[in-house]
Amino acid sequence: MKSLFGRFLLGMLLISISVRASEWDWRMKISVAVKDQPLETVCTILEEQYGIHFSYSRNIVDLSPRVTVNIQNKPLKKALEEIFNPFNISFTRIGEQIVLTVRNHPTYTISGYVQDFRSGEKLIGATVYSPIQHVGTTTNQFGFFSITLPRDTSGLFVSYIGYESGRLSVKKAERGPVIVLLQPRNFLPEIVVVDTIRQQMEQSAVNRLNLSPADMKSMPRLLGEADVMRAMMSLPGVSGGLDGGGSLSVRGGSPDQNLVLLDGTPIFNTSHLFGIFSVFNPDIVKNADFYKGAFPARYGGRLSSIVDISLKDGDMQQYHGEAAIGLIAAKAMVEGPLKKGKTSFLVSGRRSHTDMMMNDLFVNNAAGGPGSKAYVYFYDANVKVNHIFSPKDRIYFSAYVGQDKLSVRWLEGATDGASAAYFGDSRSNFLWGNYTSTLRWNHVFGPKMFANATANYSQYYFSTDYKYNYKPVNTLDTGVLSGKYYSRIQNAVGKIDFEYRPQPRHTIKFGMGAVTHIFAPGVSVFEDNANGQPAVDTTYGDITSVGQELFLYGEDEWRALHNLWLNIGVHASGFLVDGRFYHSVQPRLGAKYKLPRRWILNGSYTHMTQYLHLLSNNGANLPTDLWVPSSGDVRPMFSRQASFGISKTSRRGMYAMSVETYYKTMDHVIEYKGTASPFNGAGRDWDDVVDVGRGRSYGGELLLEKKRGTTRGWIGYTLAWSDRTFPSVNNGKTFPYKYDRRHDLEVVVTQRLGKHWELSANWEYASGTPLSLPTASYEGIGDPSPYDPPQNDPIIDHMGDRNTYRTTPMHRLDVSATYTKKKKLWTKSWTFSLYNAYNQPNPFFYTIVTDREKQERYLAEVSILPILPSVTYAIKF
Questions:
Q1: Which of 109, 246, 390, 864 could be joined to 447 by an S-S link, Cβ 3.0–4.6 Å?
Q2: What are the annotated GO cellular component locations (predicted)?
């Protein structure tokens, strides 16, 4: 009986405790503490500890944002207000449940520009952030931002790398675009905290690598310059071709598959002086965005990568300048206001003096022969004007011109073992360059809508001319053999881009445009006045074709969840050439997801279409390739690329690691048949000498980085494959492509020493690239050449399978030391550098040499870039 009574009392006690636990009111005191946990976790803790049940719809209320809460002994209602108000979540009691909904607070949209306090320069990628709402945005390519927040938001914080953070009062913001001015840090370079490559990736768009001026200043300064293209070539998945080639190959693609933009205008050749310099003067580069996967829909026309470079606008308040002179080149830049606060200008120029100082440096005597001399030089110039019509309207004009020239002369008589002909005072010239001009108009339609209209023109050309004075053996006759070969491509673009930001979670971009492509793929002229006969002028390939391209796009940069970012878009285009119309619809998807403990997952899947083709000579590194349009027989190139990666940053941001894999297929790529080349394949029927096939590239990339401290740098490694298959090339068998490099390793180190010195080193190793060589040769039967001895018959080579051999591996060490000292009114610096510090003879091209006297043939490896010492003195005022 007692036992039964005890059980009854125990049951009543438990019921009483349960009822008491469910009886709560708004005045009850609660305590809860969490660190960097989702809101949903906070609700779970309150349910378990206090019996408070929450009800909500996951489609309406987002409880994924992570919070840090430390509430001790506060009334329930005040505690919930503190937890939910920053996320615009309201709560009400219905029965014994708390129902969560989204509060319809009045909102306020703030838009404007983030600028440098001193110069008025627009800052690209600056962060505008609300710490209360835990939402933010970044400025676009023109420094413009727009963010929509609850009206009771007190203020916003604005930050940018290398600048003091600023605060914007929402209540004081005007209805029109506001101007946020940030003060540059007055720190010495050795203590500037630089958010380098991987940290920028964590904070910015999906799979975008952004290089700011602060990033570029932290790069090794080779030959006195921290070059933006050289920085990109040191990243995994990117290579610069053979030593001295200067071409950019991304994930096994060819150089023509990279869209390189200078202020929105395409550049078709990006290097000077065989790749030692790029065409982008680092003194005037403001920002660089680089994509090798997850291409945004606003970009189109290429398969492998996007490089979008913006130049400085020019100082609106004061005059500034920089000048430098070294053993290789000299440069100068000046900027300032034409009208303070309204109009600015920027002018820069560079010119190498290698033609005056190092005539014998760039050509191997074995290639040029006795008595040969050579010189090479480049120059370029930029100009930009920026004018503010009103707070809502700005206009920009920029132009670029650049050119390289290589000249080889045979000043003395020389006997070539292959032809046994006498040459004297003969020459060969190579000339190539770019020209661009850009006109842009920005207009702010409202606090949420921004537009940019662009009209630009670009041109790339090259020409080759030669003149040989010869004397056939055993005769008294003389002759002059001369010729010329040149090509050109021109682009004219008109487009308009819109950016709409309805809320911080969405940035919607859309636009349209038209491009006119003008192709002059090759003109050849030959003259031979042997035996005193009048010269016969033979010209062929003088054709011009025009292609019209139309495109439109739409994309949404969407923060779908607190830890999930998406870039979803589509790019549609059409191409009309010679009465044939091609069209393409290209979906794009990129995603990034943040995991706990600073792990980040990223993935992408993209389609890309390219209407332009490059007729490339596999055996040469000179810029003699031809740009041609798609035709009736050669369809546009089309690619599909999928990538997946994971990255990790250490707790204090000192170290970072990332691993990424990719797989890419390419359809309708082209390759010369047999022995065709740009010199005999140019003409109206160029598509008859090429074969159309498919390509494939895949691999993995590893990046290890140290981002802070006096010692900084990274190690990048790439394991990659790239191949091609054509029906009539290599008997239809798949073969390694020209840019197939199995291993690529880059080591970059920068070391600060005291207040004034900075040391840097860059070591690169790349395994050999594919090479086609004859497997047998024999003397043919036929009429001898007028330049050959009668007893010599022509040599005929039997070529084996395509690209079955490999060049020797390439490796090179570049080192530099920079001394900087700041004076009251100006800053001076000395840079001492060594290009190819241990004088490694890396291959530039290969040629088969025939020695008839010894009756042997051998493969000669020609190198053109030995050790290059340089001293550069620079001033900045």
A1: 109
A2: cell outer membrane
End-to-end CA distance of the chain: 101
Do β-strands 178-182 and 107-116 pair in parallel, antiparallel, or remain unpaired? parallel
CATH class held by domain 107-186: mainly beta
For residue 42, give every residue at least 6 positions away whose Cβ sits within 8 Å of its Cβ, in sequence order, or none: 32, 34, 67, 69, 83
Q: Tokens representing 808?
A: 């020797």
| CA 41 to the chain's CA centroid | 41
Q: How far is CA 683 from the centre of its chain?
A: 33
Q: How far apart are CA 345 and CA 327, in angstroms?
A: 29
Spatial strand order of the sheet with 127-130 comes to 135-138, 127-130, 155-159, 166-169
Give the C-alpha separation, 702 to 646, whole Å. 10
Does residue 656 contact residue 648 with C-beta atoms inside 8 Å? yes
Neighbours of 707 (CB within 10 A): 22
Q: Across the chain, how many H-helices and E-strands are there?
A: 9, 55
3-state secondary structure of 679: helix
Residue 760 has pLDDT above 50, yes or no: yes
For residue 806, give Cα distances in angstroms to 27, 490, 551, 618.
80, 36, 41, 13
CATH number of 23-102: 3.55.50.30
Distance of CA 296 to the CA centre of its chain: 13
Closest CA to 592 of 645, 655, 664, 556: 645
800 contact partners, CB below 8 Å, separation of at least 6: 772, 773, 774, 775
- Are 568 and 593 within 8 A, CB to CB? no
pTM across the whole model: 0.82
CA–CA dist 567, 306 (Å, integer): 16
Q: Which residue has the tokens 């987002």?
A: 62
Residue 332: count of CB within 10 angstroms of its CB:
16
What residues does each domain of the chain span?
23-102, 107-186, 213-876
The residue among 623, 640, 635 whose CA lies nearest residue 669 is 635
What 3-state class would DSSP assign to 29?
Answer: strand
Assess contact for 551 and 583: CB atoms under 8 A: no
Question: Which ranges of 335-432 would DSSP assign to H, the alpha helix?
Answer: 354-357, 365-368
Round to whole Å and give the CA distance between 537 and 859. 35
Stretch among 94-108, 204-218, 315-329 having the lowest mean pLDDT: 204-218
